[in-house]
UniProtKB/TrEMBL annotation, chain A:
Highest taxon above the source species: Bacteria
Transmembrane region(s): 38-64, 94-123, 135-156, 183-207, 228-247, 295-319
Name of the protein: Carbohydrate ABC transporter membrane protein 1 (CUT1 family)
Organism of origin: Micromonospora pisi
CDD domains: TM_PBP2
TrEMBL record, chain B:
Keyword set includes Glycosyltransferase: no
Stated name of the protein: Multiple sugar transport system substrate-binding protein
Species per Swiss-Prot/TrEMBL record: Micromonospora pisi
InterPro entries from the UniProt entry: Bact_solute-bd_prot1 (IPR050490), SBP (IPR006059)
Keyword Transport recorded: yes
Domain of life: Bacteria
UniProt entry keywords in alphabetical sequence: Sugar transport, Transport
Cross-referenced PANTHER family: ARABINOSE-BINDING PROTEIN-RELATED, DIACETYLCHITOBIOSE BINDING PROTEIN DASA
């Protein structure tokens, strides 16, 4: 979805910061350097314009039309805010998908971060062979949103899959996890949580940055392990936690591949895995309502932006930067 | 969280609305750009349409052809097209194919970019969608002057490609509904095989007995299966569609759901989650071949494909009830893009694929029985694959009992198919009563075809 590919950083085209005196004295050089900068940037700029900006603008335009993807653009009809109105007032499946997505993000993201942090703490010690474990735990994330992994998941969590065999070994009767509307979404959450490798690696890097003298000082003051974790590790790690939280939240809202594969593109059983993006895909490509799907995409973009802003505004209260600089 | 979100989002939309009209200068320029670009693109896309095509008879022509299917189909199709090139050396082909999954996404995207393939495969799920938006070339005039010869096709088969009076595609093969059963399993337990013409009630009783004796559920639950529902409707003198309307009522759907609720309660079918496995996946996961049911409701020409997934012997009969409710259906169609620069050549290729005896021999029964009856006869005689032989025999036998084909499905058909699965599953999982689910389904159907 094009809406999520906005650039994450703004490149600096003009080199080092100049004083007013510089600018007065060397206008021509500035121009020449600027030009060179833009030339070097041009592949990126062209990519931004052609692959991101223009399609985004077009999709914004389409969201106000009844575009169905098959009709030529010239015959597209402007319908004003009708698509947006329908979404908010009369489309039950839309709100159902919103609920599914929120449930998924609210449960899977915190658990994934907790798992990542927990394992990162374990792997932050100097054991023999700890590197191997770090690699192994990171492996599932490398497979990422791959289709193959989702297929494996489906066969593992079938009624006659490996997971139920394992439960059977302990005398517990399994469930048809992926084929049960009560459990299908939870199965997807487990899949998402299991792929905690990427935030784990970032946590590990963060843990390495915590100065050991803080722990020494704390233990001199008589703080136990738990107290050290709460009073030293967590505050020192908070910028990293914040970073992971924002990233994973955005990721969580965009969950698509696993739901698509698990339900064969339908969001089933009975809409239990109808994630927002999957619903958007179905509206655009199966029901051929690309205008409506575009409107859904723009509301989605706004919603994620709002959530990110909210996260940033709460960050003031719990994120501490070690250099003492308040943000 | 849910009740809180809409007002917030509404406010936001309202806010956008205000700014849109207050900052006229910038916004109107942006909007103008956004409108102009698509207009220019749209104009470019339509450009080819009015140009005279095929001015010089032997000028080199390259046609793009796009179809879904497996590797075996790809090989056969490529061979058939190569044969055409050998007969018309000026015509070459750009061939693209892929699995069914994602095929229509890609076709829609190509069409949107004005770059639809000259010839493409399509099915009755989407034929009306494409035809009603004038993506497909109207083949009527070609049919009338025999450039596209349909005289050897069963009438109801080529008419199944007529949408709003326009011939939107030509059947690439014929198939029909078939009830596939596990012969080996039944024989092992000395159970009778299902027969063509048995009533639905008899069938469910039969299935219940199979479940008891073999411990394998007697039948899949086809309440989510549009084709079973469709045949059942036709047996009550109803139909899925009548003109531009639905041909059934919520009452019919309720009765259908109740029929299967009864069957499930009697143990004639597997549990809801197993039924879902069959509903949600492709032909290789049909319960009759995964060993989770003794029968499946499928298309008869899928038998060879099903046979690949199981060691057991399979048999086919008609769906329960009066078999005259069944019809010869176009398994799929070949259509020509209306914006193609070489329409006449493209139509000639269609004619070749459907009517040429040599091409027919190459293509075999991969897309269903050959549409052309002469070709079908010679191909049937040459077929060696036992599963394919059986499928042909069954279809030939049933064809004598077939009724007329219904009208080609309305646009919105794919949505209705998907919604039937949801509605039926609501009942199967016990989350809704048959009548509540049927009522909700009917509302969605009405808006889907509107």
């Amino acid at each position: 979805m094009a809406l999520t590919t906005a650039p994450s950083s703004t490149p600096r085209a003009t080199g080092p910061v100049r004083t007013p005196a510089d600018r007065r004295g060397s206008g021509r050089i500035w121009q020449r350097e600027g030009l060179a900068g833009y030339v070097f940037l041009s592949p990126w700029l062209i990519g931004l314009l052609a692959i991101t900006a223009v399609p985004m603008l077009l999709s914004l335009y389409l969201s106000f039309t009844n575009y169905d993807i098959l009709t030529p653009w010239s015959e597209v009809e402007w319908v004003g805010l009708t698509n947006y109105e329908r979404m908010f007032t009369s489309d039950a499946s839309y709100w159902h998908a919103v609920q599914v997505t929120l449930a998924f993000a609210l449960i899977a993201v915190p658990l994934k971060l907790a798992a990542a942090l927990g394992v990162a703490l374990l792997l932050n010690r100097a054991w023999r062979g700890v590197g191997l474990f770090r690699g192994l735990f990171y492996l599932p994330s490398l497979l990422g949103g791959s289709v193959a992994l989702a297929i494996v998941w489906v066969s593992m969590f079938n009624r006659d899959g490996a997971f139920n065999s394992l439960l059977g070994f302990f005398g517990i009767e399994g469930k048809p996890w992926v084929n049960d509307p009560e459990w299908a979404l939870e199965t997807l959450m487990v899949l998402a949580i299991w792929q905690f490798g990427a935030p784990m690696v970032i946590f590990l890097a963060g843990l390495k940055q915590v100065p050991t003298e803080l722990y020494e000082a704390a233990s001199v003051d008589g703080a136990g392990k738990i107290r050290q974790f709460v009073s030293v590790t967590l505050p020192m790690l908070s910028p990293v936690i914040f970073f992971n939280l924002v990233l994973e939240t955005i990721n969580g809202f965009q969950g698509f591949t696993s739901a698509f594969v698990l339900s064969n593109g339908t969001g089933g059983p009975v809409d239990s895995t109808l994630m927002y993006t999957l619903n958007l895909y179905i509206k655009g490509f199966v029901d051929l309502e690309m205008g409506y799907a575009s409107a859904m995409a723009w509301v989605f973009l706004l919603a994620i932006a709002v959530i990110t802003v909210v996260l940033f505004s709460t960050g003031r209260f719990w994120v501490h930067y070690s250099d003492g600089e308040e943000r | 969280m849910h009740p809180a979100t809409p007002p917030m989002a509404d406010e936001r939309a309202a806010h956008d609305h205000r700014t849109l009209f207050s900052r006229r200068g910038l916004i109107s320029r942006l909007v103008a750009t956004a409108i102009t670009i698509p207009l220019v693109l749209g104009a470019a896309a339509c450009g080819g349409e009015d140009e005279p095509s095929d001015s010089a008879p032997n000028a080199p022509v390259e046609l793009s052809v796009f179809w879904w299917g497996g590797e075996a189909r790809a090989k056969l199709t490529e061979d058939a097209l190569a044969l055409y090139t050998s007969k018309h050396p000026n015509v070459t082909f750009k061939k693209t194919w892929q699995a069914n999954q994602g095929y229509f996404d890609k076709l829609a995207t190509l069409t949107a970019s004005g770059d639809a393939p000259d010839i493409f495969q399509i099915d009755d799920n989407f034929l009306t969608e494409y035809a009603s938006r004038n993506v497909t070339l109207d083949l009527t005039s070609y049919k009338d002057d025999k450039k596209l010869d349909v005289t050897k096709l069963p009438e109801s088969l080529w008419q199944y490609g007529v949408v709003d009076g326009k011939l939107a595609g030509i059947a690439g093969g014929e198939n029909t509904q078939g009830l596939v059963y596990n012969k080996t399993l039944l024989q092992k337990h000395n159970l009778p095989e299902p027969t063509t013409g048995m009533s639905w009630a008899d069938f469910i009783t039969w299935a219940e007995n199979v479940s008891k004796v073999t411990k394998v559920p007697g039948t899949m639950d086809p309440s989510a299966d549009y084709k079973a529902f469709w045949v059942w409707l036709r047996q009550q003198n109803k139909d899925l569609y009548k003109g531009k309307e639905l041909g059934f009522t919520a009452d019919d759907v309720t009765k259908w759901f109740e029929l299967w609720k009864g069957a499930r309660d009697r143990g004639a079918t597997p549990t809801a989650d197993v039924i879902h496995e069959g509903n949600a996946t492709d032909i290789t996961k049909q319960l009759v071949v995964t060993g989770k049911a003794a029968t499946s409701f499928v298309w008869a020409n899928q038998l060879p494909e099903l046979k690949k997934a199981t060691k057991d012997e399979l048999g086919v009969v008609a769906y329960p009830g009066d078999p005259s409710a069944q019809w010869a259906r176009a398994a799929l169609y070949y259509s020509v893009f209306r914006g193609s620069e070489h329409k006449d050549v493209a139509v000639d290729v269609l004619n070749f694929l459907v009517n040429d005896p040599e091409a027919g021999k190459i293509l075999g029964t991969d897309r269903g029985l050959p549409s052309n009856l002469d070709v079908r006869k010679s191909v049937s005689e040459a077929v060696t694959d036992p599963a394919m032989k059986l499928s042909i025999a069954v279809e030939t036998e049933l064809a004598a009992k077939f009724g007329p084909s219904p009208q080609v499905p309305l646009k919105g058909h794919s949505k209705i198919r998907a919604e039937l699965i949801k509605a039926a599953e609501e009942v199967q999982y016990g989350r809704q009563t048959p009548s509540a689910s049927a009522a909700a389904f009917l509302e969605i159907c009405k808006s889907a075809i509107a």
